[in-house]
Design goal:
Elements lengths: L3 E6 L6 H13 L2 E7 L10 H11 L6 E6 L3 H7 L4 E5 L3 H17 L4 E5 L10 H9 L10 H11 L7
Parallel strand pairs: 1-2, 1-4, 2-3, 4-5
The structure holds 4'-phosphopantetheine.
Length: 165
């Protein structure tokens, strides 16, 4: 039986930590669907279309990985596409409480879906999309923290603006 896994998130923007987890998931599961949440309470920095474009760029060459968006409940989406696993990353103990709560709630919503936690490489244990956005907005370098396509998009968005705007 083939196992299809969903790696959900906001990916605003995708970082090298996310990419590390995508690669690890692709090695473990037959198929990995990277699913970008379309609607959140927060106003995103990049549009869903921009996030899809960047992610599609970075997963090129990973034949069993696809990129899509989803709305509504994650478990509903997972069942709809006949996947059985949700992949989430745990960088540090501080992530665990929130992730455990979400995993347990998703299990309550559907016992057919299993959450699997993966750890990214140690080098990415302190990396987050929020910090990347902040550093970039304030004129700092995010080189090595995000894929080149994301670095270019961040630069394009911030070029010509005073730092912090
Ligand atoms: O990258 P993030 O922001 O940590 O991802 C959070 C995400 C998208 C996995 C989570 O917010 C989610 O699953 N949202 C969909 C709505 C849902 O199913 N909520 C109940 C979760 S228990």
């Amino acid at each position: 039986m083939k196992i299809r896994a969903v790696y959900p998130g906001t990916f605003d923007p995708v970082t090298n930590g996310h990419l590390d987890l995508i690669r690890r998931s692709a090695a473990l599961f037959d198929e990995v669907v990277v699913a970008i949440l379309r609607n959140t309470d927060k106003i995103p920095f990049f549009t869903p279309e921009e996030r899809v474009d960047m992610l599609e760029n970075v997963v090129q060459g990973l034949d069993n990985v696809s990129v899509t968006t989803f709305g509504g409940l994650l478990v509903d989406y997972v069942l709809q596409i006949e996947a059985s696993v949700i992949v989430r990353g745990i960088r540090a103990v501080s992530d665990y409480e929130y992730e455990l709560q979400m995993a347990m709630m998703n299990r309550r919503l559907s016992s057919k879906v299993e959450t699997v936690f993966l750890m990214p490489a140690e080098a990415y244990s302190y990396l987050s999309s929020r910090l990347v956005r902040e550093i970039s907005a304030l004129g700092g370098s995010v080189h090595g923290l995000v894929p080149p396509v994301v670095e270019r998009q961040l630069k394009r968005r911030h070029d010509g603006r005073p730092h912090g705007e």
